[in-house]
């Protein structure tokens, strides 16, 4: 875990209350008190994360745990290995041991209704973390990024790479492509509500170019159900890209760009483009991404992947802690959006954070200067 990167996360946060201790140290608990069942002074908070196969979620778990622990809480952090029954069981266990609050990054946002009802019956507030939990009234708050705008940024970076836009969003005039260019589209997992926001933002941005025929999706696959990637898996994306190349580009057509919603998917696409597609590293189609994973940041620095979206998970973790503090003090958490996130039963009060497009020329200013990655990590493509 990159816990050193989040060491200052809670340094500026002052908590002015303490809850009575409650029992229970979880399997993911590493505090000194876990062995005898005594909770830390601030209470016990359960944190359910979806997987450890993505460095992004490892970083989120580390950031939330570090911030809460430094703020005086005992924390039970569990990773579910992208398995819905496992996550359900983990949350059940957290409720049984008497957590005071739950922070949940769900695998399937529709699969936790019974757990949320049990939490509500026990008066346990629930904060949805970056992934909206659907079809339940028992979701108290949502912390996330502006997910529609993330999709807009992904499509914008694709348009920049293709030459339709400058990096500042202006049009390049006569330098813009005049002949149609071929692109293919990828989306995230359909059971993740964010995937729909990302794709909608991207498609709304690309639609004028599709309508006028300057961008062509040669495969014809433009609906999210056709382009989704179950569980956001790199291998699944690679297999689909292989199929697209052999079925739609076996006539010598050139693929100019690929809209990818996540860096792991991007790396699967790139593997396919270099293998099945035969594209050289210095002549790759424009490939987008998300999460600024270190392996993809190096690919961007090397000119292989074109862009990614930086969502500073340190800020997301901090906002989750701020919301938790409010709920545990018996107050409402501060929202900056009370309209956008309808989970099918209610509009969930939300706090949205901003994101940034990362290109090769701003890696240092966005990622290194902020302390998210070091220059050495970018150069090696590996977290230290």
Automatic annotation (TrEMBL):
Major subcellular location class: other
Q: Listed GO molecular functions?
A: carbohydrate binding
Q: Which CDD domains match?
A: PBP1_ChvE (cd19994)
- A Pfam family that this protein carries is Peripla_BP_4
* Segments forming domain Periplasmic binding protein: 45-332
Which InterPro entries does the UniProt entry name for this protein?
A: Bact_Solute-Bind_Prot2 (IPR050555), ChvE-like (IPR049784), Peripla_BP_I (IPR028082), SBP_2_dom (IPR025997)
| Localization in the cell | Cell envelope
Q: Which residues form the signal peptide?
A: 1-20
Per the UniProt record, the source organism is: Pengzhenrongella sicca
UniProt keyword annotations, A-Z: Signal
- Record-level GO cellular component terms: outer membrane-bounded periplasmic space
The cross-references to Gene3D superfamilies, in alphabetical order and at most eight, read:
3.40.50.2300
Quote the protein name from its UniProt record: Sugar-binding protein
